[in-house]
Amino acid sequence: MRDILDIITSRRSVKRFQPQFVDWEKISRVLEAARHAPSSGNLQNWKFILVMEPEKKQKIAEAAYDQHDIALAAALIVVCGEAEKAERYYGEHGSIYTIENCAAAAQNMLLEAHSLGLGSLWVGAFSEEDVRAACGIPEEAQPLAIVAIGYAAETPEKPPKFPLENLVYFGSWRNRSKDPAKYMVDIASILERRAQNVKEMAQNIITTEK
Ligand SMILES: Cc1cc2nc3c(=O)[nH]c(=O)nc-3n(C[C@H](O)[C@H](O)[C@H](O)COP(=O)(O)O)c2cc1C
Fold first, then answer.
1. Could you give the domains of the chain?
2. N or C: where does the chain have the smaller number of CB atoms within 10 Å of the terminal CB?
């Protein structure tokens, strides 16, 4: 089994897709991953609109300020938040929780898609009004993200990511470690752990075959 960190780090935003069908099992696994995302108070105040019809995908691509390439993705999943549900429990903060809940669901979809060998893209630049119109989204729900899923027609380069020592403070703001290597899991130890897993799996196979 692939280490989840390997899946996280090797996922890329794919902007060009092959016009190829993705079987229903894979699409439903991606949706299943969304369903299991964490949500504030387990409210699960989201809905996922699965769009596979070419004309409607084209409409959504136009609503995404003419990001036409996403119309070739096998599926566009419009992630909608139902903020009112969260506001009932959490007052004003409910709208932030709703965005966070939907973001967690969207990220789960990207990771599951990648683990299935599919490309994916989180599309956040779109006209809310036009996406509402394309998908008939009522007032009580809000489109927060569009997740494009399909077979990739490109292998994007990994964009630069800040190193951990730039991002992590210890205990209080701006308190950096003087010796990050001492505390941070470096890539060498990740690879070592992975090699150990493979070794253990091989040993298990040998033992069961005996
Ligand atoms: C909230 C959000 C909105 C985004 N919107 C778009 C978008 O509208 N179009 C696009 O091509 N990429 C979009 N992206 C993808 C980012 O450009 C991409 O994640 C970033 O460049 C890092 O690349 P990586 O995902 O391969 O690590 C969005 C990502 C996030 C999280």
1. 4-150 (3.40.109.10), 164-209 (no CATH)
2. C
